[in-house]
Amino acid sequence: MNPARSDRGPEAPRRLRWALRGVSLAYAAPDFPGRDALIVGLKRYARRFDATVRGRFWEGLRFEGNPGRDANMLGLVLLGHTRPHLAPLFEAALPPGGVFADVGANLGLYTLWAARRAGPDGAVHAFEPVPATRARLLRNLELNGFRNVTLLSGAVGATAGRITLHTVPAISGLSSRYAHPEGIPVDAEVTTLDAYFAGRRTPDLVKIDVEGMELEVLRGARGLLRGASPPVVVFEADSRHFSAAGTSYAAVRRLLAEAGYPVFALREGRLHAEPADVAEPGSPDVVALRPDLPAHARVLEALGP
Question: How far lies 2's CA from each of 50, 104, 157, in Å?
């Protein structure tokens, strides 16, 4: 029997809700002996249920999901009593009325956060090429009533065209351009950030989370990075993903440096300049900005060590 389908019946949703509440409270609590093991155990237990539940994460943002069908839904549950990791950056880099681009939006954690932050005069552009994941994100947008989000069905890369993505059953966050042993192929249209934002308001902040293909996205954004109003950029930096994608952290840094962007590790809400010769990223998410620009300098001042 598939363990993700093993708990059904009238008591399942109640037990699931208690498990999810426990995960959220344990994650927000100060560290204590056995805390990490407790969180892992509760998450594993929650994934046994085949049931859709609704919940709220930080400051009332609504979501809906089934942990047995997508483990990434638990990422929203964890934030029931604590802020998202990138919240300090969003507060510093995305003003009310601003523009945000979410490349690899997944279930919408930062799409939703940015939609509320930008407000009705702002705009969010969310790129999610996997149909099933995009449908869950659309549902989360509907639950929150946001009207300032444009949800795009394509992927983002270095050039326009088509690609094959490989999705992993029950873990939407692992969808990527390189094959997984149990992956399911999905075809998608590709655009570039330069092409998409031609004639549109340029973003204040761009988030890129594409499982190692961040370099390709940045190659298709050279015009944006060198334009009159270049964005602050935050990207996932995982050397394992870079290696699987046939690139490296050093290659990403070189492209950004050519556009005048130094990079900073983001640790505990503070920015720390990366040494010039560092081979491994100093944090799971790395921020690139232009300290010579007033808007970017304000971000660095707000989040500097």
Answer: 10, 28, 36
